Write the structure tokens for this entry.
Amino acid sequence: MQRGVHVREMFAAIAPRYDAANKVLTAGVDETWRRRAVRALAAPPGGAILDLCTGTGDLAFHLLRTDPSFRVTGVDFCEPMLAAARARAVREDREGHAAFLEADVMALPFEDRAFDGATMGFSMRNVVDIGATLREIRRVLRPGARFVNLDVSKAQNRLVKRAFDLYFYRIVPLVGGLVGGSRAAYSYLPQSLTNYPDAAGLAGRFSDAGFVDIKAIPLALGSIAIHVGTAP
């Protein structure tokens, strides 16, 4: 089975319990990381923001809580995840400032320079081609607009990395299976980090894709990272 198809089906299977599992697995700290990512975006009031691999809309709704004037478009290739985001929007977006569309992040259905900012949370590890994804994101951003990526990373401190790996590769599949309903899915998610670049390597991918003013911001002792790149 192609990787993209496998990932889509995996996320479809865990969509009903995805939010609950995230809160348990991170003890709610992931909300703090998302708020930090939204602040790093520094988008203008009323801006059009693209949330890529939006899932159930966590970052999209954080964007609207930060600035209700944003116009947020969330895209994902997993329809059950989008259905969950639309259900949340009934409660969390009563002004109708968010829209959720099925789309592939490597072939976005938008014109060049259509957005004032873009975000992605905990998904870059799962895309088929990081370089192609970053180039497509840059294409749809206006000059000066930022792309902010929040994801798991590889801590440089050996003791921190060892402790995190124990949690990520051993505990996450067990707890994720119990709470999220699919041990297979929560076993895949840690494995997606294996061939993922470290913070410096991902910053290099941003540069290769044409972004400028690139920053890598370590969180959780380097086991989480925010990457920021600006469209030229």
The first helix runs from residue 3 to 14. Strands lie at 48-52, 71-76, 98-102, 115-121, 141-152, 212-219, 224-230. The chain has one domain: 3-230.
